[in-house]
Amino acid sequence: MGNCAVVGINWGDEGKGRMVDLLTESYDVVVRYQGGGNAGHTVINGRGKFALHLLPSGVFREGVLNVLGNGVAFDPENLWREIEDVRAKGVSITPENLAISDRASVLMPWHRKQDELEEMRLADKKYGSTKQGIAPFYSDKYQKKTVLAGELPDEEKLFERVKDIADWKNLMLEGVYGAKPYSFEEIKTWLSDFGAKLKPFIRDTSSLLEDASTSGKSILFEAQLGTLRDIDFGIYPYTTSSNTLAAYAPIGSGIPFVHMDEVIGVVKAYSTCVGEGPFVCEMSGEEADRLREAGAEYGAKTGRPRRVGPIDIVATRYGVKMQGTTAIALTKLDVLSYMDRIPVCVKYIVDGKEEDKFPFPTKLDGADPVISYMPGWKCDISKARRFEDLPQEARDYVEFVERSISCFIKYISVGAERESIIVREK
Ligand code: GDP
Ligand code: MG
After folding, report:
1. Which residues line ligand 1 (CB under 6 A)?
2. Is the same domain home to 400 and 417?
3. How far is CA 54 from the centre of its chain?
4. Strands (E), 320-389
5. From CA 333, how far away is CA 426, in angstroms rounded?
6. Considering only CA atoms, which residue is closest to atom 12 of ligand 1?
7. What is the CATH number of the domain that holds 98?
8. What would the pLDDT profile of 91-109 be if each residue is shown by its tens digit?
9. Overall average pLDDT of the 405-418 stretch
10. Quick one: pLDDT at residue 423?
11. For residue 420, which ligand has an atom nearest its CA?
12. Neighbours of 14 (CB within 10 A)
């Protein structure tokens, strides 16, 4: 099978979890390589309905090894809670099927606190953070003010290092925000408690993955969010704080030398965007409400209503290129079945001129969408399992998107359940 990354092409919530759950059938290992517990990957299969945050979406398949790579924001508290939730629904999570990189930095309680305090300070200029501590976590990591998961077992050394970091962090919490400082005792208890629970999972996952790779095992890399939230190439500053691109997958997973054979880019049949920031193709009013309801577009982590719009060809083409996409999974095509005609954002107008190319972030504020329409199909397509089963209008829509973004649409998802999928051959 080789190695494959499953990535989001747009703003996130494209259905990556659903695709990873499906595709893991053919893979031995699934690695989450970036982001943190702010993810919401919804998976519906024979085991039930799950909203995964930190756990890789391969946990439902027996025999699959799931890895949290060094690039992930390792939040022991939320990870432990998630493990308990998933276990309560009968899914086994053990050191046999889950490994945490010893090089993953630990997300501390003060990261969540700082995230919340900063969003409060920003008031109406907020970034739309999920307040999971992700931005403070990554900035501390790059300032070298975090501890690594592999440091948790040796408490004597760990506490010495954490004491220095806690002193520094308290200076900022008290000085900048006037917040209550963390007591060292409180932090020690937190680290000992979650450290003890998660120690059995912490390993040198680089060696583990290297061994898997050299023995011919196939690896699937699971991204969080999408291209437009990439810290370097997204809609900065309305991005996340890590690289969501497939090119980062080998680094964030711990095997920078690995060859990627395939990149599956997940694209929703329409657009959604959660949180703040420019969203050129955004719909409003009743049209938006209807699409949001049809697609049940509410955040898996936060319950926030997602902003919605037609598929955005300009942004999608950019996402396809930046991800090095080899094939597309087009999800939620069934959601469009109620529409008489399907809107498509084919271009932008930027500074009075038509634009095919995704603009520099600050140019997005004044950009307008150019919308054209395709005929709707107005019937239930959720039972379709072959491309030929789809009505002509739906096939035309898929082929139009395919031509516009110059990338083969291999998978078409027509329902949230694992089996609601059409696989096309080239
Ligand atoms: P992710 O963050 O990229 O994994 O995506 P999310 O799980 O946040 O959002 C996708 C949502 O759409 C989830 O609620 C899925 O259950 C649902 N979903 C995925 N594929 C389909 C599909 O083809 N049709 C429908 N109706 N729902 C889908
Ligand atoms: Mg999501």
Report:
1. 8, 12-18, 40-42, 44, 300, 331-332, 334-335, 413-416, 420
2. yes
3. 10
4. 327-331, 341-350, 353-355, 368-375
5. 20
6. 15
7. 3.40.440.10
8. 999 999 999 999 999 999 9
9. 97
10. 98
11. 1
12. 29
Nearest by Cα to 56 from 12, 16, 10: 16
Residue 39 confidence (pLDDT): 81
H helices of 323-419, where? 392-405
Tell me which residue range forms the domain holding 78.
3-102+202-263
Q: Which residue out of 41, 53, 75, 102 is catalytically annotated?
A: 41
- Ligand that lies nearest to the alpha carbon of residue 382, given by its number in the listed order: 1
- How are beta strands 219-226 and 65-68 bridged, if at all? unpaired
Residues 258 and 401 in one domain: no
Number of domains, the chain: 3
How much distance in Å is there from the Cα of 295 to the middle of ligand 1?
Answer: 8
pLDDT tens for each residue of 288-329 = 999 999 999 997 667 889 999 999 999 999 999 999 999 999
Same domain, residue pair 297 and 368: yes
Cβ count within 10 A of residue 420: 20
Atom of ligand 1 nearest to the CA of 331: 23
Active site residue 41: yes
Rounded to two decimals, the pTM is 0.95
Same domain, 171 and 281: no
Residue identifier of the C-alpha nearest atom 10 of ligand 1: 15
Pocket test for ligand 1, best of 6, 16, 41, 42 (most atoms within 8 A of CB): 42
- Active-site pick, 13, 21, 230, 334: 13
How do residues 360-372 score in pLDDT, each as one tens digit?
999 999 999 999 9
Give the gyration radius of the chain's Cα atoms: 22
Determine the Cα–Cα distance for residues 3 and 213; give it in Å rounded to an integer: 9
The model's confidence at residue 380, banded by pLDDT at 50, 70 and 90, is: very high
